[in-house]
Amino acid sequence: MDVPCVRADRAAGEETRRALAAADALAADREIVVEDDVIYIPVDDADAVPSSFEVVRREVPERETQSTPADVLGFEPSYERLGDVVIVDEDDDERARELAAGIVESDLPVETVLNRASKVQGELRVREWDVLVGESTETTHREYGCEYRLDLAEVYFSPRLATERHRVSSQVEAGECVFDMFAGVGPFVIPAAKRGATAVGVDLNPIAVRYMRENADRNGVADAVTAVEGDVRDVVAGEYADWADRIVMNLPHSADESLDAAVAAAGEECVIHFYDIQHEDDPFGPGERAIRDAAGDAYDVVVENRHEVRSYAPHEVNVCLDVRLVSG
């Protein structure tokens, strides 16, 4: 039986599925079909599909009934998935273990359930976890056609930023020199390299740098990615002055402290993706002023995009400024 389906690139499959779920358009009784690089996601009502998606009709198999965490628990729990790890955020230990039990009892493919036990802390940006189910905090996460091996107890990684990482990497052109100043396990440099860029990722965390190298090899771009352990100021001064066509500064609480290094790394013309967290009354102003101060007379500063990434806390937003520096 032919049913309406959204046709999308396989690399954008999870993002498309989430958008359709948010629109309450998914057909729960039909299987998603993947053919080569194309994914077909069945929908109940073609009229409910956002106009930005392509709707086609095709035959897809009926789905075998699978239980979700909501089916088991009787309510829709809040959680994140990262590979075969599920993350919950509960202050009450008993409730956290109830959620973990329901998640494991469902048909969700999961090996480990973690509860956040601290905020991100320290210069290496790691957090503590309560392991509710399983033993390992290491997993393999997939997004937009890339795979990342990582250990959540040892490195920083947020699955919530997948769409933002894709937004930035989609702007990269073949032949660019891309410099990620706080690179983690490589979720900016690896997709940039897959688009034909030469990419350098710097991080203070030696374990993150090890994973970045492993992930570059895992994704077939080891020859195009250089992973460097160290302070970004020293790295720029040592080898990468005047080198970059594009710079990523995803350290929103303190990226402004490294703007001098970013300006030093910039070539004659360079795009900087500067991440910041500010009050909702003026989310972009402080970052823009800091960039202009750092550029001084050496560059003309053109703000190409002011982008709100997500809400961070009450009255605070995580934002990104896409800024082009042009040598004066």
How does this structure look, described?
This protein has a 7-stranded mixed β-sheet, sandwiched between helices. A 4-stranded antiparallel β-sheet has the order 2-3-1-4, covered by helices on one side. It has a 4-stranded mixed β-sheet with strand order 5-6-7-8, with helices on one face. By secondary structure, the chain is an alpha/beta fold. It has helices at 13-22, 69-73, 93-105, 162-169, 189-194, 206-218, 232-240, 259-265, 285-295; strands at 2-9, 33-35, 38-42, 54-59, 80-82, 85-88, 112-116, 129-133, 138-143, 146-151, 177-180, 198-203, 225-229, 244-249, 266-279, 299-313, 316-327. A hairpin with a 2-residue loop joins strand 5 and strand 6 (85-88). It has 9 helices and 17 strands. 37% of the residues are buried. It is globular and about 65 Å long.
Would you kindly provide a brief summary of this structure?
Helix content is 25%, strand content 34%. With 328 residues, it is an alpha/beta fold. The relative contact order is 0.08.
Write the layout of secondary structure elements.
Layout: E1 2-9, H1 13-22, E2 33-35, E3 38-42, E4 54-59, H2 69-73, E5 80-82, E6 85-88, H3 93-105, E7 112-116, E8 129-133, E9 138-143, E10 146-151, H4 162-169, E11 177-180, H5 189-194, E12 198-203, H6 206-218, E13 225-229, H7 232-240, E14 244-249, H8 259-265, E15 266-279, H9 285-295, E16 299-313, E17 316-327
Helix pairs in contact: 7-8
